[in-house]
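Intended use. Records like the one below are meant for learning the mapping from a protein sequence to its folded structure. Do not use them to infer anything beyond what is encoded.
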Amino acid sequence: MTARGGQLYDRVWDRIGDVARLAPTPHNTQPFRIVPRGPRNADLVVVRERLLPREDHGNLYMAAAFGIFATALEHAARYVGRDIAIDVAPLVDIANLHTASRRVLLGRATLSEPGPVDPAETRWTMRIEPRDGLRALLETRRTSRLPYHDRPVLGASTSAMAHVAGVYGHRFLSFDDAALVRRVLRLNTDAVIDNLQLGDEREEIRGWYRYGDTPPDGDGLWERPMNQPAWELRSAFATPWLYRLPGFRQFARRRYLRTQRGTRHVGLLCGPFVEWPDLVHAGRMLMAFWLEMAAHDIYMQPMGSMLTNAKYADAIARQFDVDDCWLVFRFGYSDVPPRAPRLRSIVEHE
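Structure written out for the chain above:
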């Protein structure tokens, strides 16, 4: 390979990375990197210091996020006119990722010329989406922490979402009983407030909060995408004890619930979510599921605080009589939410 050829391939990886960086990650930490190793090959690694081991017990959700990233890479490669094969590392000690070396190899990617599209493939694979449509859909997929429009999601849309989950061997459970939805929203609010009292977890995520105008490039949790003013975010970290006081707790709960008015639905995703291969598979399912939602103009807000806290995870299990729920979220129609920034590049040339 000539140096000129290498530069050309580097640009291909840069173009792929420019689209794949749209993949969502917990707290917008963006821990995955593409490390080109040749004209057709690249290592896929996770950067240790961007993990959240105190909150994400066992690094389960970061492992699933790699599945999301892998699916985004496949769409990104197709967008730039290539096919990509991703070989996921067979054995990864996910529980100890945060104590391993600075970068841990999670998979390898191999580029090839695009092959013919099998018409038998269904749309959830996205392979038959027009190239421009792929990027537009990835851009459209966002978390919405805004109030939702007070109207129900069409049954055809929830059926399509259930189909995607089922294709991957997972279950999508949707609930629209108004009293139940209010109960889940209140439960999540209590989980958010109670988790502030967990010192290790609070300090871990404090470093990912950002204040001021949201820049086009970056990482972390910004005021506008979070739909919370700076004073509220700062006080939560500076004086968490305040939120234990009954009067202030009620005040904070009302404020948070106001951001979620108009919510008609809560959803659960259930299925295997323990071992490394299952986690990657679950992440792939979540990305396909989320893109399907975007195709129907539906937004979601994951409620991660409930499932990383054993007390609230148990409450969800009892409420819905499930023992394998790994994601709870509210969903519906909303105004277009502010875009969370992405790092300028996730490609590391060596």
